């Protein structure tokens, strides 16, 4: 017995000793995790595209600064009491958008398909979306971390996990590099490639359903927007960019809008529905700024019933911008924009027409007249919001609206005013327009907590984790403050 | 341990028998378990006449016919004196002596060391000390009792407790002490949702180390530095709490029964003091003309507009109370059964406030232990049940502990031991924590109307079972929707979380004593549990009106395979060698799955995944599997009982490091020197020892932090989505290391009546494996690197004094004091700060800045002009433009405890003062509560004698201390008639950072044991003790208003933050313990 037990101990110790011999590092693999090499590029492209549309679709701070909405009890955004307001936008675009595009590109380059033309289209699609995303960052923050791939003067290494403290590049230089990249991408798009079914990203193309012609129109429309944005700061570059566009390659109807059709079930619903309806909160009402502008002409703007709900008194009213407002008293966001399936827009036909009108007003040669594009823009918007053509006719005939006699001291102001109305639900673009036009005149909060924001401040996380480069960047743009004008904002 | 001492005692005393005239006999038992005490010295006082008790605790002594006094003494127990008088039989029971229990200490791997031999800091607390306080979580009972240990408790029922020994060492990893029971490491993870520790709404499910039964603990040893813990491997770098459970007695059968009830109430000093002058609203802008305090509508149909309280406003910046003013309040709408339905009521402050939300809680505790044994073996079977009803509505926590252990000498020299602990615990309605969600405290402290009567809310819920809230959305009187807050009773009764955990902890062990100096032990142990967590959001709740159900299943297991040879050999008369040689294989596996309904619940009240309105998203599966193989050796050479030199070495091979580079070694050397040996014997200085040691501990990486992995979000319709992870992994990680040294001394004076133990230690944890927070412009928010180094150094002082020892009266004072200083000495690359977490409001964050302290609070600070705070033209303080200013430090300057114990015959009274000095806490509760006009300081009069809530145009407002930008004294008044008054963004973050110091009366205990003289007549009962226990009775001093500075949010590294803080709970317990 005793011997037997001694032997068992001996055996047990041998077993224990040998258990330690195998290479145990094979345990360090999670069988439920997706290792790189197993996933194709498409799902990354789709995810990034969805995320970037989410960011511009919701953006309540943009909608509030554009004075489409006023706030109820907590009016810190509308009176500009703002702390770390840009961190979500920044980290989402870098982390959830650009890094996924980058991975998509990496996978694609490492695993070329049989159809080189299709791969080329995909790379161009990624490129266009990256340009779009960087254009959002650079027009919001100013100098930003960016990659120096094409322009040797650009030095920082954004999206490089080996360099944990990326430097910031000059915003204007980034911008011109983006325009170059956009041109190349447009050239690389080919709707007639040899293919095995899909022309580009196929089912992962959530925006255009694999229609390369629509990609061409989207890219050119983006180029038009980017050209116009720098038309005050760099008119000559703007002119060459805008005039290089073939107008036929622009978005030319409401069927060609660059948009994401949201779905009825979470988590793929429109984020406005999530924030305003699903949350059950009562934070926003119509702003008196927008409401007054829409009600100013003799003929009330027919879109008012689409933009806003009726208030408790059966009419339409906006809360005073920059103060607290009783939710119960005012109109709220209308049924369409708060529907879970309402699409999120990147760029649409309405905007293109107003951009063309502005191009003409600035002396760029794009064909047509200012009045034509102005009226086309209004009609496109009316059509988008399902206003009867006859009703639209009446509105356009109103002397306050008709181009010749429209409200506004000059061409730009006339365009700005109607574009402002039409860009409802497009807070990001409206806020950008105001920084260029300064018109229509916004209301001023009675007790502002700070200046009108002309940019987003860099995220506080950059201060804490990239302090040195942050400090340099802040100095380079004239201070990391909300009221620092960006390079394209010279008015 | 008793047997070792027994031998000593025999040698000392057994020869002293002298012929006397009569004989006294008796039996000596231990007061704590009623078991016989062998080896107790029985002396006739003032003589050399004595004996020692035998194996059954019996003794027999000849005494003079005139009688005298007998003293009963035994190491580790209180000394007792009994008058002989005419008695011929004297039975006594000896209580444990806490101060001298450290005489023999059980160290790593169960190796016993005497006080002389110990060459590093270790401190013991007896099981009695821990269990008598009757806290359900053992860790809380350690608070204030041990130097070097910082316990941060939590006021939630069964909430998690942070146990940090000798400071925060790891920048982002685990800093919690390792818990080991009878040589078996047990898991102490906190399975909370990620945001709980950062103040997001959620539930604190507690740390699973709370599964230890406090009633089953014989003793606890705290090994503080890695030098003491090299033998437990990497995890012991944070210190070890070693628990030894009670063992069966050697002879006979005994039964011990314990029964107690604890009554709990909240400490009202940790709840807000509300103002009673102004009711709900945000200012004067309601009604059709937007200039009143009330909404106006013709509710009663008399053609005139009636005032309605803006119920949708969750603040008290509204109209001044006026009992003559009748208004429609929340209770006039939504519920036709309301006694005030469609009725106006006087506009007055509520007569019952949020403090009345809390009820009296009860904990029932019952346990029975049967133990017994013979020369060959012993067994113990114990069952403990605790039922807790918390102080919040609908909260219960039940625990069942079943323990069985047995050992038997199978054949000569071979002993088999087995133990199984089965713990089942289930909870309903653990308190919600954090901001919003179901945490009613975040409403009570931050968003509330002081006109709302909590009892009416209770009645409304009881009457209807519906969410009849005080916080109707706008639209009254026609529409009653919901806006921000549920009826608090609806939230607690309908939106409750529940959880259930089954845990098996056990081992089988064979000990083979090859020779008298060599023993081989083989052991296989298992710690395993399964937990189910379920969270409910009722249909109609504000959090998510369509309703939601979430479930998480967690499975954990850890196997340890140990083989250990221990040696204890007298090499010569002067030299003794003790040592251990062993191996350990540890395999830890975790898997979890969590799923949540999508889009709402189809049928209200059914909490099942199948009840999801839309298709549910794929459940989240979590997984980890890890193995560490360790080999170790430990040897100690002792010379003549006064000089000891020890060395230990360990090599670990871990599965989580890169193949081929996954082995790492560590070691310690230490020495103990009893220098009093060389000081002539004197009554003043009785004992002195010096300890010096140095140790290093290596550590491995978290599971799966080498290879890059993708995230997979729910697809967009039929299009699959993939995304990059937030953390960039690193395939070339190396093991991290903690190096530390320690110098300590231990001295006793005045015949042992004063003892002093002083330690100085320094530790550096270098080359840390951490996900360093990176600029998100890298595409990631963090990246795993080997970087960073944190130093901790500090002093630990323990003083024990026997102040009075006079006849039957005894007064002992034990004190401990700890001071730790921490510095982040290295970070990664150009990184100068490691953010640890952001606070939920006000721009604050917790950081580890290079050259600064781990746990530095950053935030916006004041801008000073000529040394004075600058006030802006809008009456607000100017804030720095950056939020990276150091404005606080969560680490205390020092912590300490003072225990006073008084005993007179069989009555004992003790109390423990627990103190923390310094250390800061950021209060989001104050940030909001001052902005919403809830607190007492938001009313009153200003220096002009006017009510501050008057408009500035009427002389109201406050004049904030400071200067204007030009340096002239501030003359701009800050309006107090509108949100955010003098809270929120009006002040920088630093205004809401408070000193978290406290002095607490932690424990108060009165116990009475029926004297053995009396009890022996009752035959069956051996001991009977009654006790009254008070716990957390009184916060004697604190600087944080309206809250408990100790209350934390879950366990983890993100401390120093309060939001929706739970009030402290006072406990008073009554306990009866009997042994048979």
UniProtKB/TrEMBL annotation, chain B:
Lineage top rank: taxon: Bacteria
PROSITE patterns cross-referenced by the UniProt entry: TONB_DEPENDENT_REC_3
BP terms from Gene Ontology: siderophore transmembrane transport
Major place of residence: membrane
Ranges of residues in domain TonB-dependent receptor plug: 115-240
GO molecular function: siderophore uptake transmembrane transporter activity
Residue stretches making up the TonB-dependent receptor-like beta-barrel domain: 455-898
Family: Belongs to the TonB-dependent receptor family.
Membrane topology, as annotated: Multi-pass membrane protein
Subcellular location: Cell outer membrane
UniProt cross-references to InterPro entries, sorted A to Z: Beta-barrel_TonB, Beta-barrel_TonB_sf, CarboxyPept-like_regulatory, Plug_dom, Plug_dom_sf, TonB-dep_OMP_SusC/RagA, TonB-dep_OMP_SusC/RagA_CS, TonB-dep_rcpt-like
GO CC annotation: cell outer membrane
UniProt keywords, alphabetically: Cell outer membrane, Membrane, Receptor, Signal, TonB box, Transmembrane, Transmembrane beta strand, Transport
Top-level taxonomy: Bacteria, Pseudomonadati, Bacteroidota, Cytophagia, Cytophagales
Annotated Pfam families: CarbopepD_reg_2 (PF13715), Plug (PF07715), TonB_dep_Rec_b-barrel (PF00593)
Position of the signal peptide: 1-19
Protein name per Swiss-Prot or TrEMBL: SusC/RagA family TonB-linked outer membrane protein
